[in-house]
Amino acid sequence: MFSPEGPSLRELTVQALSSVERGYDLLAPKFDHTPFRTPDSVLEAVAKALTPLGPFEDGLDLCCGTGAGTEVLAQVCRHSVTGVDFSAGMLEVARRQTPPDGPDVAYVRGDARALPFGPAFDLVVSFGAFGHFLPRELPGLFDQVHTVLRPGGGFAFPVLAPPRPTSPGFWMLLGFDAVMRVRNALWRPPFVMYYRAFRLGLVLRELARAGFETDLYPLSGFGERDDGSPRARLVVARRGQPAAGTVNS
C-alpha cells in the first residue's frame, strides 16, 4: 500500500476524512496499486465459475470502480458490458484502461441505490463494494438490481468466509470497523466502509425478499476451512421468469 505507486499515509488519511464519493475520487489514480482492488485470483475464479452458467448477452458491473470486473464480464457476455459507479474519478481511470477484446464496454456514473437503467441486463456482478452499504440499505439495493435484470437474469458476487475469532484477521477487521464507527461519530460527512456488515445469512434473506432464487457455488481454488466449508463462494441470485400470460414491468 505504501509503495511508490500506491497512496501515502497522508493521502489515505485525507481520503478517510472525506465523503465516500470524494474519497474515491482522490484515491482513484492509485487505487489499482492498493489492496482495496479485488485480487486477480478472485476475478479469475469468478469468471471460471460463471462460464458454464452462460453465455450471457449484456452485463453490468455494479460499483465498478476502475473497471477490474469488466474483464470478467467480457469473458462471459457476448454483446455489451456496462460499468456503473458514483465516483467520477474512478470512472475516469476505468475509461483509460485498454478495453478487453469482445463485447462493447461503456461506463456510466450513477448511484447503485438508484440505477439509471431499465431491465437491460442478463448478468450483474459486483466485487468488493458491499461494505459501503449499511444493512438497512440492502433491501433497496437488491430491489434495484432486480429491476435492471431481465427475467431469468443473474446477480453474482463472491463472498469470502469470515475469519475465525481466534485468527489475527478477525481482530484486524473488528478493529477497522471500530475505528470507522468512531470516525463517523465524530466527523462529517460519514465514510461508510464496514467489513463485517455484509453477512451471508442476512444477504440470503434479503435476496429472497427481493424476489431472487439463490444458489451458492464453491470457489474451489481457495480451499476449505477446517470444518470442510469453502473459504470462498460465488453467490448467484436469479430473477425468476414471469408466469405465463403476465407482462414484465
UniProtKB/TrEMBL annotation:
Recorded GO MF terms: methyltransferase activity
Keywords: Methyltransferase, Transferase
GO biological process, one term: methylation
Keyword Ribonucleoprotein: no
Source organism: Streptomyces fuscichromogenes
Residue stretches making up the Methyltransferase domain: 60-153
Name under which the protein is recorded: Methyltransferase
Source taxonomy: Bacteria, Bacillati, Actinomycetota, Actinomycetes, Kitasatosporales
Protein's UniProt keywords contain Methyltransferase: yes
One Pfam family, short name: Methyltransf_25
